[in-house]
Write the structure tokens for this entry.
Amino acid sequence: RLLIVDFGSQVTQLIARRLRELNVYCEIHPFHDVTDAFLDEFAPQAAILSGGPASVTATGSPRAPQRLFEMGIPLFGICYGQQAMTIQLGGHVEAGHHAEFGRAFVAPAPGHKGDGIFAGLFQDGREEVWMSHGDRVTTLAPGFEVIGTSPGAPYAMIADEARRFYAVQFHPEVHHTPHGRQMLENFVRLAGFTGDWTMASYRNDAIARIRQQVGDAKVICGLSGGVDSSVAAVLIHEAIGDQLTCVFVDHGLLRQGEADEVVAMFRDHYNIPLIHADEQSLFLGALTGVSDPEVKRKTIGRLFIEVFQKHAAEVGGARFLAQGTLYPDVIESVSVSGGPSVTIKSHHNVGGLPEKMGLKLVEPLRELFKDEVRALGRELGLPASFIGRHPFPGPGLAIRCPGEITPEKLDILRKADAVFIDQIRKHGLYDDIWQAFVAILPVKTVGVMGDGRTYDFACALRAVTSVDGMTADYYPFSHQFLGETATRIINEVRGINRVTYDITSKPPGTIEWE
Ligand code: XMP
């Protein structure tokens, strides 16, 4: 297995992701956990030293244990990792004045076409790379030679072939370095990895880790019916069976048929112990008269915690709380001073609950990206229709109903949403779209249907493409699709007489309306 020593770069997880794509098993460990004893126990077959925010020239800045350089294994230093390697092996790094951010081109050093991990590069005479550094190497450590240089980094690519130590100043793990993947692949091949690790192996490893963490304790899991918590629940159930109990809170803000679908799948299909907490009147009661978006969110969050706590008490003696936290939810993986300090986007977290209840977290997906969670879900045999589901926010339809929420509006919204999604499926567009839904607007407009006047709600269709939900663009439906959908909604849903299409991107808009 391969060790990634994390010096705290924002993109360390991308290294792991690229390696998983190459079917190589790796683990990320923060530099301060990588002690000599750790190395002996972990026995890495190769290691990558990540980038990081510190300057190697600062006193007390992070280092890898010297032992890492004496293990006889191939090493690959990236950005800060290159600089740490250089200093620790006897070279020199200079601080400041050499900042280089963004795209740069690396040219081969005289006499070097590139070998080892640089094999196959420089086909066009130079390599496009993504730089992000303030310091740079100024004297190579003994044994190293320069393979490539950029205007800002005379030692952009360096190698000590005899020891199989390689290092680069740029970031091969990001998409903006087109041949970065090639370098990582070259590295793992020369380190002897055949690429036989798969999602099936991930599943087995994750199961072993869950068993080890949990022992014979009980675990509760808040199930939203979304892909992430569902995959986490099925995985954990596979690991510890009925030590797991799921709590599904129906706050009355779910989509049409959603509660039945989720309960049927978990209770009937998977046989996972499930508490179905029907709390519709509690939530809708508390939301009566509330129209401010933040008050809505906070009310829902507070009630969710209360309800969850009440039902979790029925499980009795649970010591762990399971969550389907994904990597993009983990804002920061390493803070250089204090070690891994993890903050999760507040809207994804059952805020404050673990501490309040004295629970520890089980988060088996926290290293994965959404598409990898879907692959794991397929591996676990979750139905394809479930795995491909669009994300659905915790506060549910409440944030798709600007203004006051009423049972009447929710009913109209559910029906309109079902028609829109049906249209999208019928046209084979569902999987091309990140998320699609209807928002019911707090405004009634005049229409004419048959020979009569109508005075009904207007609604907005929202459909976006996105990679991670952080940025998004509206989906370019054909006019014919939009026209057909508007007609269907107005004909099939009583209470709506006007349909609009929201063509705002994110930013400046957000995906949800509130
Ligand atoms: P926005 O509206 O911020 O949404 O562009 C980005 C993504 O996050 C989802 N979202 C939420 N998910 N709890 C959640 O679990 C929430 O409170 C929440 N708010 C937004 C949204 O559906 C989109 O996928």
